[in-house]
């Protein structure tokens, strides 16, 4: 993989030289060697920041000899985190577009994705600030009615611009405290407003701006977005008919002043991306830097197709019984029974979903065309996941075995139990306990959670692109990371997620969020029973 992993750590953290591991699952070899000086073998390794230190805890810089490359500790000194080449450059993403065009949907998706990649990302919503500022004040058009958005209402326009700048100031202050990506969630639909933002940002060094405009011409999607908008805080005290009439007039006011991003904006040398009908068409201009490119590539793979993403660990393996980690063990008898039941249950769910989808299409309720009928099944390259899906008919299911889905590689700890690791490598055991997210297993090819996140990045993009239902059969660490993305789990909590064997998750991406259901395999019934997730 050619991309680097962003860090939430301060910009003063330096990268340590990488090793030349030949293991296919080593994720650090693509990083450039920014500093070839590392500590001698007698130095202790600080697992929290990836910098060797002496026994007193001071960072050391001593030349690494060739002989040390053959030691497991040398491989351990690979960087735990890297910065994309803009280095300490901060990124601001102002949104552009009319109301009800899916800006908030895009914002939430981008925030989730960038946070999952370990970029500290925060959304600054101007509408929320406006609602707070206008409480109890209905003078001069400052209420939530359509009059407040009339371009001829100069007093209201001044207030709207002030609120946008206040939100921008809050965003800039947050970036200066260590944030990496700030998203300015507002319409910013006039060229004058965009120039106002750019003028303020000119005085900020190391700040790149990428405008993201959302355009929607699909009448079905637009009608759905408007219905969603009527349930927003602006209209919670109105009846539906009154709210719809007011919002229609608000749209007309915005349309009168709306100026799309075009050649005139290009003369300013800005970066921008226009997303049309949620990714069906994407126009990008003057994109610079790794992070902006990642955002564009992610946006290009959006779709609103209704689909179910099923996720589970493999069935119980013989190594699970004795508590060993890693390896390439086969399933136990119990694990094979789980695989057989899984194939029957997914087949049943597939048929039920097809019935529901046909009814939606017939009723004109579908937001997208008929989805692909083929259900994809993805497993890792390891034996225990392949054996779990042996009962799936390849004529019905598109089965693929993908190396990205392999379990985290535990280096010299492969094939050991946690009790054995604690006994043989007590310092490693403690380092992992202190910070599981950053900890990298020692030995050639040993991985950390951050390595696996980077390894799974292309798979996440493919998840967003797919329109068919999907079953992923993988392993504990990979399941935590993928569920962490889909459920927007805090990165500190993600490595501790409880994902037991013989548990099946169903994730349904929706325009308003993600619906997650959990099913437990009841061995006595040889069937799955829904097990509600606790509320956040």
UniProtKB/TrEMBL annotation:
<dbReference type="Pfam" id="PF00300">
    <property type="entry name" value="His_Phos_1"/>
</dbReference>
<dbReference type="Pfam" id="PF01591">
    <property type="entry name" value="6PF2K"/>
</dbReference>
<dbReference type="GO" id="GO:0005829">
    <property type="term" value="C:cytosol"/>
</dbReference>
<dbReference type="GO" id="GO:0003873">
    <property type="term" value="F:6-phosphofructo-2-kinase activity"/>
</dbReference>
<feature type="region of interest" description="Disordered">
    <location>
        <begin position="1"/>
        <end position="37"/>
    </location>
</feature>
<keyword id="KW-0067">ATP-binding</keyword>
<protein>
    <recommendedName>
        <fullName>6-phosphofructo-2-kinase domain-containing protein</fullName>
    </recommendedName>
</protein>
<dbReference type="GO" id="GO:0005524">
    <property type="term" value="F:ATP binding"/>
</dbReference>
<feature type="domain" description="6-phosphofructo-2-kinase">
    <location>
        <begin position="96"/>
        <end position="306"/>
    </location>
</feature>
<dbReference type="InterPro" id="IPR001345">
    <property type="entry name" value="PG/BPGM_mutase_AS"/>
</dbReference>
<dbReference type="GO" id="GO:0006000">
    <property type="term" value="P:fructose metabolic process"/>
</dbReference>
<dbReference type="InterPro" id="IPR013078">
    <property type="entry name" value="His_Pase_superF_clade-1"/>
</dbReference>
<feature type="compositionally biased region" description="Low complexity">
    <location>
        <begin position="19"/>
        <end position="37"/>
    </location>
</feature>
<dbReference type="InterPro" id="IPR029033">
    <property type="entry name" value="His_PPase_superfam"/>
</dbReference>
<dbReference type="InterPro" id="IPR027417">
    <property type="entry name" value="P-loop_NTPase"/>
</dbReference>
<keyword id="KW-0547">Nucleotide-binding</keyword>
<feature type="compositionally biased region" description="Polar residues">
    <location>
        <begin position="1"/>
        <end position="10"/>
    </location>
</feature>
<keyword id="KW-0175">Coiled coil</keyword>
<dbReference type="InterPro" id="IPR003094">
    <property type="entry name" value="6Pfruct_kin"/>
</dbReference>
<dbReference type="InterPro" id="IPR013079">
    <property type="entry name" value="6Phosfructo_kin"/>
</dbReference>
<dbReference type="GO" id="GO:0006003">
    <property type="term" value="P:fructose 2,6-bisphosphate metabolic process"/>
</dbReference>
<feature type="coiled-coil region">
    <location>
        <begin position="237"/>
        <end position="264"/>
    </location>
</feature>
